[in-house]
# Entry
Amino acid sequence: MLDSGFDLVAEFPACLAVLKAYASELKHLSDSASSEPAAAVSQGDSGETEAESAELEAEASDGRRRRWLPRVPAVDGINAEDLSRAHGRLIAHGFLKCDLADCPAGIVYQLTPEGRQILARTIPADETAAA
# Structure
């Protein structure tokens, strides 16, 4: 399946940009989650801090909340039509999953292990080409 992923991103580069956008959102979410407990402790209000800590621990233990993201609304350099097309192709090839269950805010998306592998194999090539 990875060969088809490389074919996909070669044929339709917007797909790689969308995968990168979701990876960036995940990283941002992870970074902000790891900084929140330290900020809560520094507030000094033990009642709030304990409640906030319990909530953060519950969120951290719920892997589903950490992996599912709202749809990326825009990616630099990609028009709305190509963004929709990229989402569809990534889902069809198994590099991105979507889910409607328990989502009052709308569809949520998740990078699949195959999508992460495509990123892992293409990002170093992009960074070395830019250097």
Q: What stands out?
A: Residues 2-30+66-130 form a domain with the Arc Repressor Mutant, subunit A fold (CATH 1.10.10.10).
